[in-house]
Amino acid sequence: MTDNTVAVLGAGMVGVTTALELQRRGMRVTLMDRRAPGLETSYGNAGVIARSSLMPFNHPKLWGTLPSLLRNQSTGFRYSPSFVASNLGWALGFVGRARQSVFEETTAALDDLIRLSTAEHRRLLGEVNALHRLRDNGWLFLYRSAQAFDAPGAQLGRETMARFGIATQALNAGELRDLEPVLQPVFAKALWIRDSCSVNSPGAVVKAYADAFVARGGQLQTCELRTLRSSGEGRWQIVDGHGNAQEFGRVVIALGPWSQKFMAELGVDIPMGFERGYHMHYAPGSAENSLQRPIYDTAGGYVLSPMEQGLRLSTGVELNRCDAPMKPVQLDITEAAARQALPLGQRLEHPLWMGRRPTLPDSRPVIDEMPGRPGLWLAFGHQHIGFSTGPGTAALLAAMMLGDKQLPMNPHPFRASRFL
């Protein structure tokens, strides 16, 4: 195929890095979204780039915690019964994949993707002069009791990280206090995930990548995306909200949680759940009296990250419709837990921010060409780790699209034919 025009739909981390990589490989790329780059889920996450994220939520120990989760009172997990009832296929598929064989395939695949992405992030941050945003001091899993540290799920996590060679260090209460003096003595144990890094503003990182794309000649268009259609000549037409059509040789759909609705316009049913989450910023302490790295309070169900905007508290999961009204109860509960752990000032913003994590039943994204529709490429379903795995997704997709004989990693676990 000689046509080197590509439209990338979606300007989050996955879409922006895909546009950058295809541009680097010589393609003429147009990046399209309804909002400016990095203003949706890629903006409000915890900013962690961690190999520990290879652990999917639907791991084999999920079965032991399922009865308590179904009571719908957990700080880290809430769900809408009506959403689950209307999406039983997705829910049963998600729980049904909490099997050892699927778990082993998923962890190996995600580890490959995270390692590739971390290297690509470092390259890109250097290219856009944003390495100052990167912290290399890891992050912490905090446990309020020794029993929680020894729980089956926590043990499985440590065993899995050790199997993949991820550097961790168990800390007692005194060692944790030495590492993070600002924390109150409510945690009996901690696990320091040393083999990870984080950034101080995920949205600013996405914007820096997008600015580099435009500076290198890429086209950025802000418009409502209605649908796309085949021109019948191996090309694709993208139709915007005003009915205007633009034609491209190839198209990449990287619309995150909105990929499901967009694909439905093509008659394609995507089994996707929406793990919604909230965040809020609080005034940080002084330089010598503030968090040095992100923390995950396993009982409190939140992540607290030092950000450019202040301390960012990110909640766990609210399983619900993509665009259902916000429910701030989860933020209120986790904020109360966080105030037990360290001093938080007043909330710094209004209204509340919410992001949507698009999750497929096996907790792996699709990175592949659409079966039976040549030239239509898919890159969505990254659940909680789209920010950290976007650059690796871009590298793999570009290599596949351009027919590289040597791919940067095994694409099989991310094949579209798993669900399509």
Tell me what you see in this structure.
This protein has 420 residues and is an alpha/beta fold. The protein has a single domain (5-418), classed as FAD/NAD(P)-binding domain (3-Layer(bba) Sandwich), CATH 3.50.50.60. The protein has 13 helices and 22 strands. Strand 16 and strand 17 (302-307) form a beta hairpin. Helix 1 (13-24) runs parallel beside helix 10 (202-215) and helix 1 runs parallel beside helix 13. The longest helix is centred in the N-terminal third of the chain and has 28 residues, at 100-127. The mean pLDDT is 95. Residues 6-400 form the FAD dependent oxidoreductase domain. Its EC number is 1.-.-.-. This is FAD-dependent oxidoreductase. It comes from Comamonas resistens.
Summarize the SSE layout with pairings.
Blueprint (H helix, E strand, L loop, with lengths): L4 E5 L3 H12 L3 E6 L7 H4 L3 E3 L11 H9 L6 E3 L1 H6 L1 H9 L3 H28 L6 E2 L3 E5 L2 H4 L2 H12 L4 E5 H7 L9 E5 L2 E4 L2 H14 L3 E4 L2 E6 L5 E5 L4 E4 L1 E4 L5 H6 L8 E10 L12 E3 L4 E6 L2 E6 L1 E3 L9 H13 L11 E7 L6 E4 L6 E5 L5 H16 L19
Parallel strand pairs: 1-2, 1-14, 2-10, 4-19, 6-16, 14-22
Antiparallel strand pairs: 3-9, 5-9, 6-8, 7-8, 11-12, 12-13, 15-18, 15-19, 15-20, 16-17, 17-18, 21-22
The CATH architecture would be 3-Layer(bba) Sandwich
Q: Structural class given helices, strands, pairing?
A: alpha/beta
Uncertain segments: none
Rg (C-alpha, Å): 21 Å
Going by CATH, what is the homologous superfamily? FAD/NAD(P)-binding domain
Q: In angstroms, what separates the terminal alpha carbons?
A: 25 Å
Count of structural domains:
1
**How much strand?**
25-35%
Shape: globular
CATH fold type: FAD/NAD(P)-binding domain
Enzyme class: oxidoreductase
Organism: Comamonas resistens
Keywords: Oxidoreductase
GO molecular function, one term: oxidoreductase activity
